[in-house]
């Protein structure tokens, strides 16, 4: 059984972006130390464009071989002219409105989201599945999430897009590790308490 990991960036108060989902204010914390962490441990979570700019376009995938995102999250790349932001992974995008996939590497999930994710998790393989977001998708997939990797940037947003777009419900996770960075960024890893 492969793991579904929600690897996500958030503010101290748990928002993944401003009310529209924009998290660009967090980028100022991506310094040399943090980039080294990403490059060595999670290189596949950096977009193809970012990997090319930072000279590690050929880095081997370390944790994931598949990414799943909602159309809202995918739209950010589309608006910037990128149809396959993570071409080094198998890309799945949940959308009922796109109709046909804009890119041969991108597979659309148009219905039975949970069933599609369970089928991916049931595949053989050493690497896992990255749930990229956004909020709506993560909310629907909360019951399927096996692991959380939360990059917390030292900023308070006050208001914004929640990590999980769900109704109130308590779900327990177990803390596995915390890594701190000199600039105040934290990366916490949690496993689902089942
Ligand atoms: N901080 C971070 O690490 C991080 C990570 C990822 C994303 N984000 C931000 O999150 C924002 C997007 O989040 P969001 O909550 O607005 O949108 P989202 O969850 O990315 O996507 C929602 C869309 O997914 C499709 N969808 C949802 N449920 C579906 C289902 N059951 N079956 C088929 N399609 C389904 C629908 O697309 P259609 O309308 O096409 O049907 C829906 O509009 C972006 O601004 C992005 O920047 C932040």
Automatic annotation (TrEMBL):
It holds the Pfam family RibD_C. InterPro entries: DHFR-like_dom_sf, RibDG_C, Riboflavin_Biosynth_HTPR. SUPFAM superfamilies: Dihydrofolate reductase-like. Signal peptide: none annotated. Residues 2-187 form the Bacterial bifunctional deaminase-reductase C-terminal domain. GO terms for molecular function: 5-amino-6-(5-phosphoribosylamino)uracil reductase activity. GO terms for biological process: riboflavin biosynthetic process. PANTHER family: 2,5-DIAMINO-6-RIBOSYLAMINO-4(3H)-PYRIMIDINONE 5'-PHOSPHATE REDUCTASE, DIHYDROFOLATE REDUCTASE FAMILY PROTEIN (AFU_ORTHOLOGUE AFUA_8G06820). This is Deaminase. The lineage of its organism: Bacteria, Bacillati, Actinomycetota, Actinomycetes, Kitasatosporales.
